[in-house]
Known about the structure:
The chain is mainly alpha-helical.
Amino acid sequence: MKVAxxxxxxxxxADRLIQVREVTKLTSLSRTQIHRLCKEPxxxxxNFPQPVRIGAQRMAWSLPAVRQWIxxxxxxxxxxxxxxxxxxxxxx
Length: 92
């Protein structure tokens, strides 16, 4: 018996630009934190995606870039948690 596998349909406009409101929802960061990550040199090591100007007073971010930044943060958090797990197992 064959099991049917369904591929999920592609997300519409997966490579679109998003405004700060959506960036705040995706990252759980405030508008102020997002602007700090983009502008202040002390946060440059976090590599937050830079916005693009889409109007005289309007900025937007690449959705794939923001999602990649989130994935990178999760990977980093997992790596940082890993040695603690190994140390606990070694001490038991």
